[in-house]
Amino acid sequence: METSSVLLHSRTLPFGFTFANNKVSLRHLDKHLSISSSQRHQSLKPFKSPLHCSFKASPLSLALTRTRTHLLPPLKCSYSSTTSSDSVNPLLKSLKNLSLDSLKKSLSQLTPIDIVKWSGVLSIAIAATKWTVNLLFNPFFWMYFSWTWLFWPWLVAISFAIYGLYCLRKNIFGEANIFEQLAVVTSVFTWLTLVPPAHFNGYLEGWPFVFFFVYHYFFFFNVTVRKRLYGDYYARPHDPKWEVNLPRWRRLLFCVGVMAGHWLAAFEGPELHRIPGGWTNVGVWILIMVTLLMQYNSTLYLAKYSEKVVVPTAVVQFGPYRWVRHPIYSSTMLLFVTYCVALRAPLSSLFVVAVCLLYYEQKAKLEEALMVETFGDGYKEYAAKVRCKFIPFVY
Fold this sequence. Notes:
Keywords: Lipid biosynthesis, Lipid metabolism, Membrane, Phospholipid biosynthesis, Phospholipid metabolism, Transmembrane, Transmembrane helix. By secondary structure, this protein is α+β, with helices and mostly antiparallel strands.
């Protein structure tokens, strides 16, 4: 008869037992105890390390009684009683070392300047926490008058504007990716179409949402042209003489004037829920479609007769260029006017038109002088045939 033995090692006392001739011998130090056993087990491997024990059991087979234990797979498990010093939490370690004496010692080393500094930091932190909690629990932060109207809290608007300025700085240095360029445009359109009516009405609904997406669609036509020509959205290098720009202060005044016109429209117009709907807004939708079609056709025809989008190779006389000499500028003015009309703000529309005319008039003079220098009599004949610059039959 084979003898099976197992030696279990404890961290305090060794303990072992053996199977021999159907008897089990329990051995604890020098003492023996014998009992009968009716089962025979296969040999088990002894453990070699007192700090790491492993058990390996083979399938059991009973000679007298048949059971289904032989269908079970062999069990394998391992256990390790070792502890790693790396698993100790450093925070708990520092808390264990913290004592009243060490705290007294740290406090005694503080200077009056340190006390004033940390008191100021603590006061600012408490004030910011209190302001944030009050803002989050303020119902007017989350909704205005009804849950069906989208809120626009100042905190989100200002954060979005700061991120837009950050992306604009990267775009000026040529480091902005597509997402950051989109963030610049979206932040500008947010402060043009959404923030002003939200500020004066306390909520948002209706036309501001429509024009938020219309502005995106309108000003991305030239980007889609780049995609069709080059396969990506990035501008290509070209002759710098075609980069016609007015002085920086004029451009800044133009941006401020356009922004002021949108805020005046939100201030002048009635509350958003008082703007009638239905068939009374058909004219606004017609103006939107005319604006988009004018911008699309102008950009398309200009791209067909241009090299690298901005460098013209011929005098364009098709599409909207049959009616005005600068249809892209005309469509931009029409877009701003349509926004004011939708908000029922006629005086603001006149203000926006005046701002655009003052800016585009100066820019158009520089562009036309460059066109005459490039194409000579060809452009002069076109200018004599199409007399209006921006507004058909008017100016």
